[in-house]
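Reviewer 2 asked us to include a model.

Predict the structure of this chain.
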Amino acid sequence: LVLVAAGTVATFYLVPIAIGITILLAILTLSYRQTINTYPAGGGAYIVAKDNLGTTPGLVAGASLLVDYILTVAVSISAGVAAITSAVQGTRLDFLEHHRVALGMFLIAFIALINLRGVREAGAIFAGPTYLFVLTMLALIAYGLFRYYTTGEVLPTPSGEELHFDDSVGSYDYSTLTGFALVWLLLRAFSAGCTALTGVEAISNGVTAFEQPDAKNAITTLTLMALIMTVLILGTGFLAYKLNAHPSAEGGQTLLSLVSRHTFGSGVIYYIIQGATAAILVLAANTAFAGFPRLASLIAADRFLPRQFANQGDRLVFSNGVLILAVLAAVLIAIFKGEEQAMLPLYAVGVFLSFTLSQSGMFVHWLRQRKAEEAQQRIREQEQAERVHVTEDPTRFVHEQTRLEAIERDKGGNWLVSIIINGLGALISFIVLIVIAVTKFTHGAWSVLVLIPLLVLMFRAINGHYRLVAAQLSLDKARPLPAMQHRVIVPVSGIHRGVLPALQYARSLAGDNNEHVTAVYVEINPQNTEELRQEWERWGNGIPLTVVKSPFRSVTEPLMKFISREAETHKEMITTVVLPEFVPRAWWQQLLHNQTALLIKGRLLFYPNVVVTSVPHHLRR
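Predicted model (structure tokens):
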């Protein structure tokens, strides 16, 4: 769509750009086949980079992919909404154009809900739209080219169209669009088209989600996906070029909508194509819903993200990852008002950074493996040389040595092919990364390049916290603690049935020694205090009552000071605060009462050597 800025004649470059993208896809497919073979348990960029390049490159790859998964959902959903609004232009539903954000939010919630029900359910629901999209696109390409070559009809050139390049370059006549300006335009278009390749990483990262044999099925899926994408990218690019298709830069119909409407008219088939397109774009978002939670769980398992991301729900789904992804993608759509073109400059930077790190990691992996094999070969040769002196048949030894050398030559050939494939993948990915970063830098890519290091710093901070916690909880040099007596404090707001069980429990902790237990009442109204003292003589069970005055009518602050003072005075004892609580029968009734006990528990959580115990009294009605 970046070619829109270059006018009608520049659509000629659709085909060579499409060819370049498919060549890149082929290289990445071969590279990731190697990755899946080497890491059959799941070889995403995070694992490969961490194992072969180190922790920091692994975290960079992980941060890049997490950002790109979020953008995948936001961009795919926004593009799906654009397909829907393109189809309903001029109909009673054209008002949807003004509600793109709300429609995008609804689709995100729908996909999140499906994924919370489980991976198998999500796969079953989205299988149909996938097949429908592929079939309709193949039909569009075949019939569109047939119709073009039999009728010669093309789309009309929009009236008043003027050649525009980047805002910083200005307006050009096509004949002047040469040299750097032309190269810059083509690089921008190529970088925008590379967003179609982001699904390659998701397959490599989710090998374990496939049925057994999972690695073989993942490789087959990756290959089929690459073949289908090649046909669709080349076919639609060539058809759009032949039909002189170019959408308006100010909005309106998408390029695919223009081509399909020109080919099939505005009938049922057109709406089927647009519906299938919207569905497949939603499915692209679903791919991120599968990849983001799984990647977050791997990073969390290494203690670089909160442990909640590593927890699976009752349907074996990483529910927290699904929910966080949905929220962040929804926020992006709201910020950019559902305009996918505004988000595209942010897109693909992260995934090609992860491509580069992953393939570089595989390159290092093959180098290390080769060195290890050479070391093992030297050991075997030394052992064979020692055995030759004791063998009874030297000829037999020579034949065996020749056979082993042939096997090693075959291994060396396989190693050479593997390192060339992954080395080429790393080099090409790095070049594309530079192209994307440079051509999209001023259009928003800078924010992603800043965000990724910030995420890595966050990962390090989280990991540092977990390390400190582990060190402080370690039993190394620790000794068993001696038994201690309780200093029991019972905060009361009055005397009633809910207080009596708490007083009983407090006496049991103190061993019927009332010197170690006290009830404390914060005085707001002196008249109420006098009434409480009279009732306490009867119901206090011999426990002394301490009254703390509160001149500013605050309850929690004077109570906190009293507890802190008691804990400081009785350091040789455990200060136990027993909170009497009554529990209403219905949940909504809880909202009608003060949450003083909850506030007290929250404050005391940060007081050392203070234990809080709740004694609930359940109301029956």
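The chain has 20 helices and five strands. Residues 466 and 472 are 10 Å apart (CA to CA). We have added this to the supplementary material.
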